[in-house]
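Hey,
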Amino acid sequence: MADEARNGASDRDTPATQPDARANTLDPDSQRTIRERVTQLAFGGDPLRFDDFVRVLSEATPAGVDVILRGSAVTGHKFGSDEPFDADGPGTSDLDVTFVGGDTVMLFREFHIPGIHSAPLSEAHPFASPALSPLRKRLSAMTRRAVNLQATTSLVQYLRDVVMDQPYLVLLKKPKADDAEIANTSQDE
């Protein structure tokens, strides 16, 4: 008997369409569920590939910046449709990485909102951030799919989260250099 029939699930009851797909995004259980979904969909179920992706991002991310993943890898389907992630075959859906806070928005030349919310460095905007092009190429090669890089301010991310209810996965949080020094000093005492 097929798993779908045994579990009473249909093709439409993928992890992305289950009730937790849009649950409180910052809840630890929601983050774990989203991380599992992303690992399965975008990294072939291999947590080591996911960890390597996050490590490369961490190495390239300055202090005081959070990095999140949003889009179809998080929800399991394309925005505004029920078309599943990678519906056109392996590697056909992209990954949407956003740098939040810090000065990363200054690395961009193209904006949706000038100076506070960049256009993504992507196929549609290949010159949006020449400084981040090598990182985008490396991440795309690692994942065997397009990786789009974008930067925004904490305010815009807050609005996207709270007002627009857009789910996301926190990939990493880098404390500000001053905060990291304070934390290290207090640990030494």
